[in-house]
User: Fold this.
Amino acid sequence: MAPLRPDPPLYAAVALDYLDSGVGFPLPLPPQAKQYPPKGVTGRLGVDPSPGKVKAWCRSRQPRTNVALRLVTGVIGIDVDAYGGKQGERTLTRLEQLLGSLPATVVSTSRTDGVSGIGLFQVPPGRLWTPSVRAQQQDGSVTAHIDVIQRSHRYAVVWPSFVRPAHLAVDQRGPVTVHHAGAGQEGGRRQRHGAEGENGHERLLPDQATAVGG
Assistant:
């Protein structure tokens, strides 16, 4: 009988890279879960974990610990839900009609519909953004299902996390992946674009995103 291979380290494998990226502070989550991070490190009163604390989490947490990012000021995540009857795609489409298309960026998601996920954007620092976004459609109806993740509100679950399916019949989820997404539409799915930065590394964030927010 072949020996069991140990679980691959998730949080420990990427935490320091995320910390060095300047996008956010990596927080550990229970395996296969989207909540809960350690106390005292999220929300308006949360304290950013030090590099020493992140290294301690890397040593002490289970190998399959998921990864969340507490975003830095000046970075937001636009979280679009377009599954299970949610209308995030209609909301986003309408807002882009009114305010202009968002720039291409990377999207963190465990969904496969080509729309749902958290897109990361650079914004002017020091601002508070409307946590939940709605749009009035041309027929007078109001749609929602877009949240703005920011330093003071929520966090982003990011690669290489694995999210456990909650209701397999209607809510099939799996590995959290990252892809590039732009404003164009093709076959009902948002086009995906690459973006090269300095030294050949992928540029994680566009310059500005002012279309959605407060």
